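WARN retry 2 of 3 for item q-0093 after timeout on previous attempt; input resubmitted unchanged.
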Amino acid sequence: MPDAEEIERLRVEFQAALAAAATDQALRVVRDRFLGRKGGVIASLMKAVASASPADRPLLGMLANQFKNEIEGALDARRASLESGRPVAGGLDVTLPGRQVPLGHLHPLTHVRHQVEAIFSRMGYEILEGPEIEDDYHNFEALNMPPEHPARDMQDTFFLGQPVPQRGLGTPGTRVSTRPAPPDRPATLLRTHTSAMQIRYMEAHEPPVRIVAIGKVFRRDNPDLTHTPMFHQFEGLLVDERVTFADLKGTLTAFVREIFAPDIKVMFRPSFFPYTEPSAEMFIGCVFCGGTGCPVCKRTGWLEILGSGMVHPSVLEAVGYDAERYTGFAFGTGIERVAMLKYGVDDIRLFYENDLRFLEQFSF
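OK item q-0093 returned
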C-alpha cells in the first residue's frame, strides 16, 4: 500500500528521469512511464489509492493528484525548454552539415570547343563562326569545287533552293544525282563545312590571315556510330608570305600535343582535298592502345585526326590574292571526333541523346 514516503521516492525518480531527457523522444519515454494509461506510475498509484482503507484514502488521493499535476507541469516546462533551443522555422542552423547542391556543368563538346578556341587563340588565331545557311559559291565553287566536280559527291548536301537533275544522268529506277539551281535561281544550302567562312573572310581582308572558323555543319548522313546529320567542325587558315608545309606540321603538332598529351606521336600521310595542294591527313598514336595495335586503330597503332594541306592557288585567286606572292595552309576536323578520341567514346550519338548517365561522367 503506497504511503507518503513511497510517493516521495517516485517524485525523486521522476525528477532524475526528467533531467536526463534531452530530446523529444526521451521526453516521450518519461511521459509514457509516469502518465501512461496502462502501466504508468500514476495509473498504478491511483488504483492503489482506490483500494486503500477509507481512513487513508483522502490523504493518499490528495498526494497522488498533487504528484500527477507536478509531473504534467514539469513535462510541459521541459518540452518548452527543448523547443526554445531549436532554430526558428525558416531560419538557418549553422551547426547542421551543409547540403551538396547539384550543379550543372559544360557539355563535353562545349568543353572541347573551348579548349580548341583557347589553344588557337594563344597562337594568335582569330575565332570566327559565320552563317550556317550558305550559297553554293562560297560553300563549293570558291573552294575549287565547280558544279560538276566529283568532290561534291563526298558531301551529300541539304539544299534549301530547288535542285535540278544533272543532264544525261540517271535511268528509271535509279537515284538521280542533283546539282544546285542555275544562276537565275541561286541555290542556298546548309553549310557542309566551315571552310565557307574562310572564303568570306579573305574576300573582306588582305593578308596576313590567321583564323579558325568553328561551328555547326550539316550533311545528309544516316545516324550511326560515327555519323550524324549535324555535327561541329573547326577549320583553320593561315595565309602570308613564305608560309610552308613545315609551318603547317609544326602548328598541328603543337595543337594535338596540347589537346591530347605532350608526348603523343604524330604522322602525316598524303591525301586529296580539292582546296589544298599538296594535301595530307594527320594521324596520332592510338590513344586506346598506346600505339601497340588494337581493334579501334585496326591494329595499325594510328588514328586519323584531321585533314590539312597548303591552300590551292585557285582558292587564293578566287578571293583576289596574288598566288605568286602569298601561300598558306588550311586544316580541319570535327569537334566530335576530337572528343571521342579524347574521352574514349565509341558512339557519336551519345553526345546528343541527353542521357544523364552519360553526361554526368563529365564534370568540367
